[in-house]
Amino acid sequence: MGLKTFPGGVHSHDNKGYSRNAAIETMPLPPKVYVHLSQHIGAPAKPVVKVGEEVLTGQLIAEPGGFVSIPMHAPITGKVSRIDSFAHPAGTTGTVIEITGNGEDNWVELTDDQNYENLPADEMKKRIAGAGICGMGGAGFPTHVKLSPPADKPIDTVILNGVECEPYLTADYRVILEQTDDVIKGLKLLMKIVGAKQGIIGIEANKPDCIKKMRQALAKEKNIRVDALKLKYPQGAEKQLIYACTKRKVPNKGGLPMAVGVVVQNVGTAVAVYEAIRYQKPLIERVITVSGKIVKNPKNLKARIGTLYSELLEYCGGTTEDVYKVISGGPMMGFAISTLDTPMTKGSSGLLLFNKKEAEKDREYTCLRCGLCVEVCPMNIAPSLIVSGVRYNDWEQAEKYGVMDCMKCGSCAYICPAQIKLIQWIDIGKLEVGKRMRNRQQSAKA
Amino acid sequence: MIGAIIILGALGLLYGLGLAVASKKFHVEIDPKIEAITEALPSANCGACGYPGCAAYAEAIVMHNEELNKCAPGGAAVVKEIAAIMGKEAVAADKKVAVIKCQSGGKNNTIFRYEYQGVTTCKAAILINNGPNLCSWGCLGYNDCASACKFDAISIDENGMRIIDKEKCTGCVACAKACPRNLIEIVSAKKRVHILCSSHDKGAESRKVCGNKTACIGCSMCVKKCPKAAIEMKDNLAVLNYDLCIMCGICADVCPTGAIFDPLKEIRAKKRAEAKLKAEAAAKAAEEK
Predict the structure, then answer these.
(1) Minimal CA separation from A361 to chain B, in Å
(2) Min Cα–Cα distance to chain A from B34, Å
(3) Where do the domains of chain B lie, and which CATH numbers do they carry?
(4) Pick from A10, A168, B106, B194: most CB atoms within 10 A?
(5) A367 in contact with B at a CB cutoff of 8 Å?
(6) How confident is the model over B37-90, as pLDDT tens digits?
């Protein structure tokens, strides 16, 4: 039987060997953490602490700025030393709350709710929102919002995303392997919250040990199954994963998974959800992969949110060669950052370092019209035509060929023989076309 | 053979007649003035007038009483022509030119934070970590302004700096719209003193990050010395109100970093030195007497 998958996509080297066998290590407490107020999609959080205030680990330091927003908690014990602008792993800058630690790790009181499985759905959602959980796969959409679909969109399936199709990253792999039970408990809670009858855990075929272990753990569960998926990028993209597991197609033009009765969550998020509902533990740490050919000891680290990348790298023994390029996240969809003094956020899944030979780019050549980008595009849009539209300021063309449907997976740029930086062009197009669409909506209202 | 000729001939005749009838019946009356004005306009279709092209502007003049002096590339000559066609009087608008308010930005006088290998336009570069320049306000140097210019008025010198040719520039705003950092201001061509920095960073920071050390450091010297109170400090940056400026050049003299540009700075300095010498000589002569 062939493995389940989706149409399009590319076959990239998975390069997971560097860190695959490194068990999750807990990183020692950093001397300082920098907690960004905007680690998620939606309104930034609003600080509720002042400079000079003492905080305990897990104490609320910023409250949500709206419904589509999450609160932030102190990752270490210490004193708030600064609230200022700082580098963000998405390659921008944003406001951070800097906490200088006092070397201790005194938590706010956590409770162990034995009856956690039987709580009403609203209470569970409240605990998730209170713990400040957002999607931990990278995009960072607030989890409680994803779990609150409108009444006319019933959800029958929860899919856990354990695909981790990005090369190099092994954080989710280690979580599935080492926290199997927590993942399953989290999935059951998620199913209960949205009232789903079936749960699916999607895992790529390059992790046979995960699939085996998960299937053993789930031997007695009738309504949860594990789907082994073909090794292909972007197998872990939300819509592609839904199609591979259920053969349901989420419509383009802004369609959401809830339109086909599905909610997708990352495996790391499932663990955080379990801990939030049972212990009311806020999300202040996550597993992050530090990898690359030039990293001395590639590792999977459980580190506090707000730890500087430079400290993670130092803990991994530094690099063996000069660093030429640093990527926050995976190599396909992550962001190149210009300084290692950037703090990790709730969505940071990886820190990758490359030498000059690996990362140097040639110039762009003229489009050959070979059509490879169209062939590999998992969203079924025409990247080459979008790019030519953006290049010559023909925004109607860019919009017509689906610039807003692009999820920036990077398959087209990976495959392009002319080395055209399609994603960057599409980024420009998204900004401009988005502006035009908003203007149109406003003038339609007026 | 003969049959074919007859059939094709008949078809040709039929269609010809059809076209002739249609052209008479569906004839649209176009105001000849519109055509004449379109003809008089420079056909650059630059959009400086605020209309999508020259024809649209011509139509607006005739149909909606639009002002006659909106064509920046045409200048006084075109205004005169349009006025003659419309039978109205019109005064040509002030000639305006673009000024790039940054003296850094060339590849030889910018400090880079990282090596940028992406798409070579300013719009793309600014998406990656807010551009490779250390200064987060300055010119990126990927020539979006020059490629937007329809009059070939922006060139690049050997240091990679953008130079605006004041003769060719028509003040059509295309470059100002293309610049993602909003560095380009359109000002009257008569004004010659400009503050060529757009950094709102604090003084020490802007001095550190500027490639050729010509950043405005927000010291307020120019604000204090300006006789017309034309300069205002806005968020660590001196901003010149061109309406009040009399181009005396005092601000350029007192500016410690050279952020203020005055083409006559040296001539004025020379004149002042001469005047000083003269005064000293006169004083000496008076003393001797």
Answers:
(1) 6
(2) 28
(3) 31-93 (1.10.15.40), 95-190 (3.30.70.20), 214-283 (3.30.70.20)
(4) A168
(5) no
(6) 988 888 888 888 888 888 889 989 888 888 888 888 887 888 888 888 888 877
